[in-house]
Design a protein that fits this description.
By secondary structure, the protein is mainly alpha-helical. 74% of the residues lie in helices and 0% in strands.
């Protein structure tokens, strides 16, 4: 335990020991195991060793596993539950270090209370579920990971350097998926409806993949503006192009609307002159209208006849079903994770679909957890927008790194981009929102309490 607590004072020695141990393990592994298994064992043990002495490294590994989805690409890894294991190790090491060292107090934020209330609404929804064990199982399997990720972010990103490192990792991992999406599109691999790109795991729907790109676009612009080195500015410009093209090849209409909102807010903040701003509104509106019209045409339905499309009709039916669920069980909903299972019981009579999700984050929460869940989920977003306003006010009155200033200004367009996409997606309990909320809370802490600890 002393080694864990004194890691920061003996960093070089521990890294040297880790390098020697990894070399020995790799050498022995090649003698006893196939080359790929030996390499995987070495990398896994090295990552585990880093996590045991640095929960921040565990947070980055957790994020990498979420975005790279190794278990989907290599099914043999599924039995190891790497994401869950990484989350538990990172949280456990953080808890030990917090308990045994005199660290700053836990990050207190109104978002924490809203998330506690939302978790309580999940358990309350078991009273309205057909089988009470199902909401508990889905909470432990899905939502609890989001909460762990959020908690690690708000307590470990306690310096501008750590915040910058995390955002670099988040953006570059998203850019990797953007490049992979373009490769699949031009190679014709795994396309939905013959043209739409999808990923695997949490990116298994083209709309969800588009949302993952939309959320980080304003952050890429922020990193580009704050960077002084031409090479890195070129890197961020390339990443931005990958993400914009990635949204395009998903052919997601909600993703396009979210992207337009995020870009509009990002660019509007950079334009100071009134005449230039009015010109931006005019030409930006024309370009946005053309893109929306083109996307709807490519999906086979003109914008003026969108309500006649089968997908849109299904969404309208899902929204009506969600409203009926909440009205039928206003205090509990039909149970967390039960929307699609109970859709057929609440769908309009003329609906010929019997299993459908909400396709709206607010409708999903209202249908599954009733008014309590909707209250805490709406409150979570409201207090986050208030935190963004306080970040903006703090940046006006305090001096700080240019990169932190740019990041603080980019978070508002990111959240609006998520909210726009979330009106058409069931993403109330998706990772992207809770990563973004965690970054908002961490940035708020750095802007209002600039004496964070850590390195």
């Amino acid at each position: 335990m002393r080694n864990v607590l004194q890691f920061s004072q003996h960093r070089e020695a521990w890294l040297l020991r880790g390098a020697v141990a990894s070399t020995l393990i790799l050498g022995l592994g090649y003698c006893l195991l196939p080359p790929t298994a030996a390499l995987g064992l070495t990398v896994g043990l090295a990552c585990l060793g880093l996590m045991m002495v640095s929960p921040y490294a565990g947070l980055l590994f957790f994020l990498a596993l979420l975005y790279l989805r190794p278990a989907e690409h290599f099914p043999v890894l599924a039995a190891f539950h790497l994401t869950r294991l990484t989350a538990l190790v990172a949280l456990g090491v953080w808890g030990i270090q917090y308990a045994l060292t005199r660290r700053p107090p836990l990050t207190h934020a109104p978002q924490n209370w809203m998330l506690a209330g939302l978790s309580g609404a999940v358990f309350l929804s078991t009273l309205g579920a057909e089988y009470w064990r199902i909401p508990i199982y889905r909470f432990l399997e899905v939502f609890l990971k989001c909460l762990v990720l959020y908690w690690l972010i708000i307590n470990l990103l306690d310096t501008p350097r750590r915040l910058r490192g995390f955002l670099w990792a988040w953006v570059l991992l998203t850019a990797f998926n953007g490049g992979l999406a373009l490769h699949h599109y031009f190679a014709g691999l795994g396309l939905v409806a013959g043209e739409r790109v999808e990923g695997v795991g949490i990116f298994g729907d083209p709309n969800d993949l588009a949302l993952s790109f939309v959320v980080v676009v304003p952050l890429v612009v922020a990193l580009w503006r704050a960077e002084k080195w031409p090479i890195l500015r070129g890197l961020w410009a390339t990443v931005l192009g990958l993400l914009l093209a990635g949204v395009r090849v998903t052919f997601s209409r909600g993703g396009l609307l979210g992207l337009l909102v995020a870009l509009f807010l990002t660019l509007r903040e950079r334009i100071r002159r009134p005449a230039a701003r009015w010109a931006f509104y005019l030409f930006g509106g024309l370009i946005a209208a053309a893109l929306v019209h083109l996307t709807f045409q490519e999906r086979g339905t003109p914008f003026t006849q969108v309500t006649l499309e089968q997908n849109v009709a299904g969404r309208l039916a899902a929204w009506k079903a969600g409203a009926r669920m909440m009205l039928d069980k206003p205090l509990t909903g039909v149970g967390y994770g039960y929307f699609a299972d109970r859709f057929k019981d609440y769908a309009p009579p003329d609906t010929d679909v019997y299993y459908l999700t909400a396709h709206n984050s607010f409708v999903l929460v209202a249908g599954e957890m009733g008014l309590p869940g909707l209250l805490f989920f709406g409150g979570l977003l409201l207090v986050s927008f208030r935190s963004l306003r306080e970040i903006k006010e703090a940046l006006r009155t305090r001096s700080g790194p240019a990169e932190l200033r740019e990041i603080g200004e980019a978070l508002r367009p990111s959240l609006w981009g998520w909210l726009t996409c979330g009106m058409f997606l069931s993403q109330a309990f998706g990772y992207f929102l809770y990563i973004l909320l965690g970054v908002i809370v961490a940035t708020h802490r750095l802007c209002t309490e600039p004496t964070g600890s850590g390195s």
